[in-house]
Amino acid sequence: MNADTVKIIDLKESILADNDADAEVLRGELRKKGTFYLNVMSSPGSGKTTTILALLKELPKDIRVAVMEADIDSDVDAKTIAAAGFDSVQLHTGGMCHLDADMSRQGMRELPGDYDLVILENVGNLVCPAEFDAGASKNLCILALPEGDDKPLKYPLMFEKSDCVVINKIDAAPVFDFDMEKATEAIHKRHAGIPIFPVSAKTGEGVEPLAAWLASEVWAWKS
Amino acid sequence: MNADTVKIIDLKESILADNDADAEVLRGELRKKGTFYLNVMSSPGSGKTTTILALLKELPKDIRVAVMEADIDSDVDAKTIAAAGFDSVQLHTGGMCHLDADMSRQGMRELPGDYDLVILENVGNLVCPAEFDAGASKNLCILALPEGDDKPLKYPLMFEKSDCVVINKIDAAPVFDFDMEKATEAIHKRHAGIPIFPVSAKTGEGVEPLAAWLASEVWAWKS
Questions:
Q1: Which of A43, A67, A112, B220 suits B136 as a labelling partner, its CA being 20 to 30 A distant?
Q2: CB contact at 8 A, A58 and A110
Q3: What does pTM read for this prediction?
Q4: Does the beta-carbon distance from B125 to A127 stay under 8 Å?
């Protein structure tokens, strides 16, 4: 895909009263089509785009993948993904702080092909996106090491709703007082047993096991 | 104040339809009382509490100050402030992603004294708090250097509504590709001419000029 031709889609606010029911419908449709939908959430600047890029490079090549980049404004992220050679669309929320199932559907409609995996980069926000079921097969949350090991205690719902946590920017560990054991304990207090992947999306460290987890989830979804 | 006796206030959702009008009323009341109200906003983990603590230590001792720590859950931040010897209350939003004027009022009512300066640490969120006028005299936004220099482009409203931007964690500059000039330009594109203070709340670097700015705003408010 050419970065200059990236589509920008202005999302309309959903009129459906029952987003939870709609999210279940979307999940059913996607399972039937064999499309795994990964919802990536984090605070602003935790490295969502960089992590997605690193993941795309490590995923098995036979997985057909597209990325939806949600942002309040700007189109830099979708261009970054397209420049790496992957299908992507830019979703503009027009100030809205989250995506729901119907907005997911609006975005998917604009993707040009059929995919085994659609990745959504949600709006950077550790609060609101956790409250709205986007209809995803799985939710992934990124916690960047500079944000501190106490975030799972302060933003409990995000960690409860996530199926996988990525701890990003581990290359910056020497300059921050981040206690990996304390973070792991706090995450598991919110969501017992969920997988935690310490990575540096920048250097690529730790991305392989994360890609393996995602690939296995994609194949399990299709079987 | 004793950290063990920190009050926890469960905020009630406001029933007022017109928050903007209510915020103006609150601002008027506070000006009459001579209380400057500073609303501190940022992403989760940008260092709001640490910056507030560093500020408290640098402020002139004749400014009577209290801190309201808003959080979805947990009471660690108010305890941290109280342990440093300052009056503080913990506000629980019960899942809400922002504070508005009426919630500010609910918190102030529980503070034990009269103050020249009340500092609110808003919920960690770079989106929603910008949409709700808390009735503050001035809004301060913290951008942590690890979050990247592109954030003002992606979260425009936060920077438009802020009166002052702190760029925190500058001690981590060697391990991040953060372009201070680019960040300054992006911030001023959103809000021409607003003051920007690069600081390390951890080491104290740059906190003095920030404290001087705040002190001058407090005195200007009372005159």
A1: A43
A2: no
A3: 0.92
A4: yes
